[in-house]
Amino acid sequence: MEAINYTSGLLWLCTWPVIIYVSYRFIALNIDHFEAYLKDK
Known about the structure:
By secondary structure, this protein is mostly helical. The chain has one domain. It has one helix at 2-40. It starts with a helix and ends with a helix. The chain crosses the membrane at residues 6-24. Keywords: Membrane, Transmembrane, Transmembrane helix.
C-alpha cells in the first residue's frame, strides 16, 4: 500500500506543473481574446 501511495504522490507532483501551465495558457489566451473584443467594440 505504501508503494502505491508513493507512486500516486509522485504522479501528482509531476502533473501539477502541467495542470498549472495549461490553465495559465488558457487564461492568458482568453484575456487576449477579451481585450481584442473590447477594442473592437
